[in-house]
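Comment thread on ticket #2218

A.B. wrote:
> Attaching the input chain for the structure job we discussed in standup.
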Amino acid sequence: MGADTLSIGDKEKAQSPWQVILGVFIARNTALVLIGIVGVASLIGTLIPQDAGGLVALRLQGYQGGNRFLDTLGFYNLYHSRWFMALMVILAGTITICTTNRLFRILLGKKATVMRLSSMVAHYSMILILLGGIIGAWKGFSIQSFGMVEGEARSVPYTDFQVRLDKAEERYNPDGSIRDWYSHVTVLENGKPVKEKAIEVNHPLNYKGVSFYQASFRAVQEADQRPLSPVELVVTGSDGKPLPLVDYFTRAKSANGSTTLKFDVSSPYSAQRYSVVELPDKKFQLWMTRVPTLPEKINLFVVKPTAKGGQQILNDREVNTTDSFKVEDVSVKLKDMNPELGLEDIPKTLAPPKFWSGLIVAKKPGLSLVWIGFLGVTLGWTVALLYPVFSHLGKE
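C.D. wrote:
> Ran it. Output below, let me know if you need it in another format.
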C-alpha cells in the first residue's frame, strides 16, 4: 500500500503546468462558477443602461444616474467589455473540454444511452449559445439611444445607409391609455429611399442585418426645434501638422484635420444635441454638446478609453463656437459657419409641435446560433428527463 501511495504522489508531482491547467478546465465546478459569474454580470447588464460610449456617452445624453467604479469596469458597455468577452471564451472552452472528455469516456466505455447522448446534445448546444454571444459581441453592436425628431435623418453607425423619421405618433385606447408608439421611417442609401416601414413595439425594421426597435417617445418643445449652425473643427498637433479625425457616429474619416460638426444627434433625456470626434493618433475623443437656447456655447468633454473597457473624462470646459484652445498637446480651433442661425433666426410664430422617437439599433450576427443552441438545449434536456419516464411506462 505504501508503494502504491508513493507512486500516486510521484505522478501528481510529475504533472506539468499544462496538465494542471487542463485539470482545472475539465472540473465541473469551474464551469459552474463561470456560469454563475456570467449570469450575475448579464443580470447587471439588463438592469443598467448600456451604450457603446459607456457612462460618459449616457451622461452627455442627459442620463443622471451611474457609478464611476462600474464604468471603469465597463459595466455600461458590458457585453463588449474585454473581461466579459474573456469570460465567455473561457466558459465556452471549459464546457467544450469537459463535454468532449465525457463523450469520449462514454463512447470508449460503450456506455452510450439515450439519456447520456441527449445530455451531450444539451451541453454542445450550450456551446453554440456561447459562440453566438461571442460573435454578436465581436461583430455586432447595440445602440440604446438612437433618437430622431420628425423630419430628421441620421447615419447609422458602422453601416453605409441613413434612416429618416418621417412621422412619429402616439395612439390611444378608447379609455385614454397609450396603446402604442409608431415611427414611420425611410431607409436612405446615397440619399435615395430604399425601404419604408412603420416601426412599433415588437415590430422592428430589419435592413442589411440591422434591426430598429421602438423604445421611447416624447413631444419636442418649441425651443428645442430651433436650428443649430454647423461649426468647423480644425485640429493640429504640437508640430502644427493636421491630425486625422474620425466621426464617432458615421465613422467618416478626415485626413486633413478638419471636419464639420453638425450637432445633428439628439438626446433621449434632454434638449442637448451632440457631435463626437475621435483622434486615433492621440487615443482620445472630443464630445461636444449644445442646446438650441444657447447656440453660441459648446460643452466640451475630453474622453479617453480605460484599459478595462470603460471611459474616463480627462477634462471638461465650456467654449464658444469661435474659440481656439489647447487640449493636451493638441490645438483646437472652432469656427461658427453661420452665426446668424440661432435665436435671431426663429420665426415669430410658434412652430407646429413635433415628436421625438427613440429607437434601439442592434446588429446581432450570432443570433441564429443562439436560437439553434436554445432549441438543442430544450430538446436535449427534454429527452434526458422524459425518456426514463416513458421507458418505465413501456416496461409496465
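A.B. wrote:
> Thanks. Noting for the ticket: The mean pLDDT is 82.
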